[in-house]
Design goal:
Elements lengths: L22 E5 L5 H11 L3 E7 H4 L47 H10 L4 E6 L31 H13 L3 E6 L15 H9 L1 H7 L6 E3 L8 H7 L9 E4 L5 H16 L7 E5 L3 E2 L9 E2 L4 H11 L4 E6 L24 H9 L16
Parallel strand pairs: 1-2, 1-10, 2-3, 3-4, 4-5, 6-7, 7-10, 8-9
Helix pairs in contact: 4-6, 8-9
Length: 369
Amino acid sequence: MLAAAPLLVAAAGPAPTPPGTFVPGINGIPRAGATQLEDARAAGFAAVRVFLRWDEIETQEGAPDWTCRFLTDADIGRDVDGDGRRDPWPGIPCDGTPCGCGYSADERVEMIAGAGLPMMLTLVGTPVWARGRPGVDCSSPPPGRALPLRREKAGAFREFAAKVAMRYGSRAYAFELWNEPDLAACVQWAGTRQQYKEQILSAAAVIKSTGVTPGLVVAPTLEEPSGDAMDAWMDWAAPVDRLSFNLYTSDIGQALAKIEEMNAWCRERPRCGGFYITEFGARKAGIKSCPGPRTNAPGAADVAIMTRCRNRRSCAGFFLFTLSDNANRPECDRGLFARSGCRKRRLCTIARRFFGVTDLPYACVGCRP
């Protein structure tokens, strides 16, 4: 168990940043633990993306609790006890009391910082006290955390983002504003594009005003990227440093073509500061419901996407999905480590063929869950 982290403030100095101008990152999953983070760093990964749930941290307005533990989707596996609810993965702290399950915001940040890795914090989730009504027609009732803010609480996310920047500004080099607002069925955002710009993207200016260094702001992180979609969701007046999008397709050729498309689009926009590919990940051929290019060679398709990204001027970096196998879909073989924590062949393929690391401090065994 991690001890409660001390207050982290921007005044402590500038945050550690990834070396160079290109960021090769990984989506961090806390249940993987420090050993897997160190192994990923040894392979060549230089940054971690961490999700912070606003709805779990600030359950009472104006009183965020950075030490209260909460569960994210990545911390939860299958319904083991058959009660109709998914259960925490083995090893996830959970004693059944308030603030007793999962990891707190402080613990999540300190885990990555302790591994010596720069991080990007992704802020998501509308608290109960700030929730308004859906701003668009949804195919089914949206999750409460996806609801836009009520009119009288329209500035609440900006206030929370400023608190995050001040608390973790000496740890996090970048702050990502929400995730996948364009995802179908209102799963992540049930407001309009205009509400997203006014309530969420407006937090970019607030983060900048805190003076955190470097304090990069990343948005809007689209699930279905295109030039037209980015223009529709982006507020070009906001001080956003990096655009971002996910890259999920079953075909490697389509994935590479999308990078070309977005690179060309960005280069034509003077205000486009480059983009991150925030989620992608090839998998072995098999289950059709698993997103990501299909391949029989673990790691090879990932290397192709990473290389294409690195060789394109507008691509500022990537965050591979995911460090460990996806908790929601354990059959989707896309992680660098098995659910047991075993190092997979994909990790070593990427280390050798993309990062040029041949002298790893561990064996490449190609294990399975």
